[in-house]
Amino acid sequence: MRTLEQPFESATGYHRVDREGQTSKLTTLNVNLPRFYCLLRKEFLYDGLSHDGEFLAVCVFGASSIQSRALGFHVLTESGAVIWRLPIHALCHKKDAPIVPLDWLQFWDCFSYNIEATEFDRLKDSRVRVQMRDRSWEGGQYLFTLDWYGSEDAEEAGDGGHKCAHVIALDNGNFAAQPNNRIQWFCPAFITPFKDKPDCVTNTRIWKVERETETTQGFFYDSVEDGTGNSQTSLYVKGLRTE
Questions:
Q1: Do 161 and 155 touch, CB atoms closer than 8 A?
Q2: Is the pTM for the entire model greater than 0.85?
Q3: 3-class DSSP state of 102
Q4: In what order do the strands lie in the sheet with 241-242?
Q5: Which residues contact 34 (CB under 8 A, 6 or more apart)?
Q6: Which residues are CB-contacts of 47 (< 8 A; sequence separation ≥ 6)?
Q7: Residue ranges of the alpha helices (H) in the chain?
Q8: Could you report the per-residue pLDDT of 5-46, keeping only the tens digit for each?
Q9: What phi, psi does 42 have (nearest 5°)?
């Protein structure tokens, strides 16, 4: 028998029952990743005080998301140790990879404690180029995508709203976690790469299809002569607009 406050798993994730019998969903915090092998800059095992320029082979298998902090990656070392919550600039896949500031490789802090990892079939192994903070471009290969939910920062529209993080193995030997608007994708069978920056603007709306309409106990709704009315509701950031 499950005791009060003991977490349990269901089809929608992990939950906890409090002493009043109320069920609440637990934050994700940690997530499995499509594992990959790379190098760990060894100074991150010594608080940055020693072993500069040395490397350790590791398997990256998970990540943690603490809201308003950088991503933390979990690794298994070749010596059998598990190291928790390493920043992305602790990892590389070439020993001669340049030392790059963390905020060049991960553009945004985590938006929530709730995180998911997905390796999208259509994007798998895609070639990309990433725009760095100095507006230069760096080539790379797509690995997987991290995305957040369960907070206003993770789900709101607009400039201050939702961003995902595509994890990329950069050609220079580093890894990056970058949002959509800093990546150009390549697929010779489908894509004609843009030369000039697209003039898209940031979406400020979220979309709903339910609003106050007629209700009935009948199984089917009655037909109406004029069915052209717009039932779409467009919610703007911090506001409401019905069109």
A1: yes
A2: no
A3: helix
A4: 205-208, 233-236, 241-242
A5: 117, 119, 143, 144
A6: none
A7: 102-105, 152-155
A8: 555 555 445 555 656 666 666 678 999 999 999 999 999 999
A9: -65, -25
